[in-house]
Structure formats: structure tokens, C-alpha cells
Amino acid sequence: MENTLKNQIILDSTNDFSEPTLRRLPVYLQYLKTLETRNVSVVSCSQIATELNLNPIQVRKDIETTGVAGKPKVGYELKELIANIEKFLCCHIKNEAILVGAGHLGYALLGYHGFKEFGLEIVAAFDTSPDKVGKFINTKSVFHTDKLEEIIKRMDIEIGILTVPAAYAQKIADRMVSAGIKAIWNFAPVKINVKDGIIVQHENLASSLAVLSKKIELKINKNI
Amino acid sequence: MENTLKNQIILDSTNDFSEPTLRRLPVYLQYLKTLETRNVSVVSCSQIATELNLNPIQVRKDIETTGVAGKPKVGYELKELIANIEKFLCCHIKNEAILVGAGHLGYALLGYHGFKEFGLEIVAAFDTSPDKVGKFINTKSVFHTDKLEEIIKRMDIEIGILTVPAAYAQKIADRMVSAGIKAIWNFAPVKINVKDGIIVQHENLASSLAVLSKKIELKINKNI
DNA sequence: TAGATTGTTAATCGATTAACAATC
DNA sequence: TAGATTGTTAATCGATTAACAATC
User: Fold this and answer.
1) Does the global pTM surpass 0.90?
2) Which long-range CB contacts under 8 A does A72-77 form with residues at least 24 apart?
């Protein structure tokens, strides 16, 4: 079959894990870290499953992916489990990123400390507004977007976070790529086109909203 | 089998569509609307698929779900297709929501005009900061969080958007639910527990980041 | 007419779930 | 020992993809 998905790194059977598994692991990690603060030392799949409203067999399968060894009847050593999930998710590999578009969403992402736990560090922001250029947001410098290529090259940055309005997204994406960016995390509500080999992760709130709305609609139709 | 997913409205075989389909439809809609501005009148599945890097058969299946009729050799009438997707997604049913936590993420959501296209309208915001209470954000009043229950009840709001720090998420969720909220869109990076029948849609950037990071890692390992 | 595209049914592939042995 | 939980293999279920007829 001709696969039309030219620009995608596909998470498929050639890897030994699935995308749904990959998406659930950070959720487990967040929960396990709360257990850590409560001085818990051992945790079982059923415990995780109950807490997160998931199927315990699924949790076991997911954990298996990370290669950690548990003890029958006992469960998993909490510290070991956390360490293995973090290793699997490459949390200790520092990925530096720049962010373009210091609007409110940009601000929110710049101020979110949770990314560090997953290895992502936003090192600089770009905007065109004179009110923002030259300032600092959460200790990160805001440069004029004119400097985008220069700084990407000088700092050898590979990840670009796109939080500009839809109308500018493609243009900024093009500039990111031509300056050497290898992966784009796109928060603009528009599809962007990039050359082969460039990774694009598209964040789409409209999709989530559609799921939420449909659940509400179905609930109303079923219960009333 | 005992299903442990007590609190979920499950999108399964009892409906005639799948969650992946539901998540793709808004993406099609966004693209189709750009065609509309370019005065295109007819569109085919292969055209949509090419533009969005998807499989044309999948696009056809998804569109079939909305019940629109196309013409062989020609494609779908653009206006009709847009209308059908919008109808399927209930874009014309106004869903009113309140938002708690007017930090940057809250601001970003309050300022995002795209939700209106999907029927969601944020009618008020809540925060505890004296700098924000009493002000307007994008024409929406910011009330003190003390007024949360009163306003939810008075306006008969069913959707709550949660953009508070993780530490407050559960407490605010409890207050939302006891005031009558039926669905929570949770942007806090923590699982919240609610009673049966309440819908929770959890937005988790860490999951997306994990997918992005893994794609980057796989690409590096394969290409170098 | 020929060819492209929809509509629809069948096949495949992969994720989830089940079953059960191993073991602490 | 008994019972709970992991580890692993098999079965099921559902989403995607393929195939092909219908048709404009």
C-alpha cells in the first residue's frame, strides 16, 4: 500500500510499544510521584488502575513496556518504577526548545514547570510586540522575532514551539525549519506543512472539545 | 468482565462512530472552512487526505459518519459537508461554561475565539487575585472564586473549565460538582475524582510531550 | 465512453482484554 | 499454606485499510 503519511515518524509495530501506551505513561508517572511524597515504597497495577480509572491489565501491559520487574504478590518498587518510566520517556535527556508567540498561551507554557520533569526546557521566547521584546518571562528572555534564525542557529536548538495566531503559523514554521529546527510542537489551530523528516506534533483543543461535547450530548440523550 | 471505568461515558460500538473519528472531524472542519474563504464549492476525500496527510479511505469513512451524501466522480458539496460536520458535532447547540483560574492559560482560553465555532461559550471567569477580580477579560467578567457556587446556580451552567494549579484542582472540582456542574474540562496536570455521572475531559500536555520526545528520539536513532 | 470518486462490504492489523501459570 | 499479584500467551474487539461495485 502507498502510505500517504510522508512526514510522520510512525509509532508502529517496529517499536515494541503503542502510542496509547506512550500517552498513558506520563499519567502514571504523575500519580506515582504523588505517592512518593507520601512515602509509599511499593505499588501494584490494580492500585494504579483503581486510582486512575483504568483497566489493571492494561496498566500491567503498559508497565511491562518500560522493562521494570515487579514481584508477584507485592507489586513494583515505587522508586524503581518511577526511574524506569522516566528512562523510557527519556526524561533525563535535556531537549532545548524555543517558543514563538508570547501571547497568553505562550506565557502559560513558559511558566509551566512541569515540562522540566520530562526533559523539555524552553530557553528563549520570541515575539514582535515592543511591550514584550527585551523583557523576561519566567527568567526566559524574549527576543524580537527578527532574531529567530540567528538564535536557533547559535544555540543549536532543535525544537520549536508554535504559539502564534493561525495566520502566522505557516510562515513561522517555515522560518524555524530553514533555521534548523527538527521538531515543531504546534498549538496554532491550523495544519502546517513541512518538508520530509521534520516532526510536527499538532495540539488541537477543538478535537478535545468535540469529544467533550459529544459526551455531554450522549449523556443528555441517554439519561433524559 | 467488570468494567472499572465507572465515571466515563464510553464512546463505543453502541454509537456508530469512534473517538478517533470524532477527533478528526474538527480538523477537517477547520480545513474546509479555509476552502470556503477561497470560494471552493466542491471537495473530494483525496483532496482532504492529501492536504492533511491522512489516508483518503479513512477520510471517506469519517465523512460517512456524518451522513452527508457525495457524488461519485465529483466529491462533496463544500457547504453541505461543512453543515453536516457541524451538525454532527453539535456546533449550533450553545454550551455555556465558566472558567476557574484566570492565570495565563485561563487568559488564553478566555481569549480564544475558536471555541464559539464549536458551540462553547465561556460566560464568566473566577480567580482569587484582587488584581483580576472585578475586571473583564475579553468582555468576560472575573468574579471572586467565593462566588463560584452562586453564579453556577444562578446561570444554570453545566460546564466548568479548570485552569487552576494542580494543588487546588480537586477542591475546585468538588465545588463545581456540588454547585451543579455536569462536565469538567480539566487542564490541571492531576487526576480529579468526581461522583458517577459527571463527565471529566482531562487535557494532558505531558502525554503529547511524551509522544513528541519519543518521535525525536526514534528519529535520531534511526537516521544517525 | 472512460475515468475518477463515492458507497459499502470484507480483510487486516493492532490494541485491549482475558486466561492462566509462576511466584513471593 | 493460601492468596494476591506479576508475567506471558491467547482471544477478542474495534479501527484502519483494502477491494470492488455503483455512478456521475
Assistant:
1) yes
2) A74/A42, A74/A44, A75/A42, A75/A43, A75/A44, A75/A45, A75/A47, A76/A42, A76/A43, A76/A44, A76/A45, A77/A41, A77/A42
